[in-house]
Amino acid sequence: MTATTTTRTDARWAAVRAGLSRGWLETKYSIQEPGDVVWIVAFPVIYMVVLLFMRGSTVPGTDFALGAMVLPSLVGMSIGFGGLTGPASTIAVDREDGTLLRAKATPNGMVGYLVGKILLFALTTLVSLVALVIPAFTVAGDLRLDARTALLLVLIFVVGMVATVPISVALGSLFKTASQTGMLFLGSMLLIVPSGIFYPITALPEWLQWVGQAFPYYWLGLGARSAMLPENMVTAEIGESWRTAEMFAVLGAWAVVGMVLAPIVLRRMARRESGSTVAAARERYMSKGY
Description:
Blueprint: H1 3-30, H2 34-53, H3 66-96, H4 99-104, H5 109-136, H6 147-172, H7 182-192, H8 206-213, H9 216-228, H10 244-271, H11 275-287
Helix pairs in contact: 1-5, 2-3, 2-5, 3-5, 3-6, 3-7, 3-9, 5-6, 6-9, 6-10, 9-10
């Protein structure tokens, strides 16, 4: 290994460490903001209410609790939702306050920026998942909860975050204002429909099944179900298989695409930024009364 290669590697690792530090600080600030806390726990509270209403109900034709069937899918959906919708909305804000401009001026700054966002939204999504565990105790008797479950869920969570946050960052860089990222939220909601989260994917038309399998939501839900549901519940899945290897392969592919694409898109976007454009954007932002 040449001295130049070693220097570049050291610089990248320094950027990764800086990104982890920034992500941790941003997380601490985020959980101190009432608005952010409400956003983090809002959906788990809604899910909890839904699961509580499911108490006493069973999957048609079985004695398996309906809430236990739905909960793993909600876990997978929460991972995907936290990674795909949150980061995009922060890009416009970071552009307006000069954060991206400073990252552009730092060696490997975009890598550090991306690592920081992955950690930030991984931790805030983890808080949301912990809140979701509360209703789990009402249906836990029918779920598989052991060391295998814990290990598989941790792996799915980590891979899910790396697979979704960079893609969200790349997509968010295409929007000029934070309000425009609402389209990504709407798109995510539409993608949940064919992803087998609330309804068995095998009951959908075949073409819609293929649409669902093209995106992370389906695979995250499938992975969570494979970790938490009894083995006999696999009959409701495509090919009556959990397809664990395929699940990690697809999520891994999304992760690679995101990690390669996001820094490139961010750098191109940052090239169009300057001190004057940031100042103008900040002035527009402040004029709105924020």
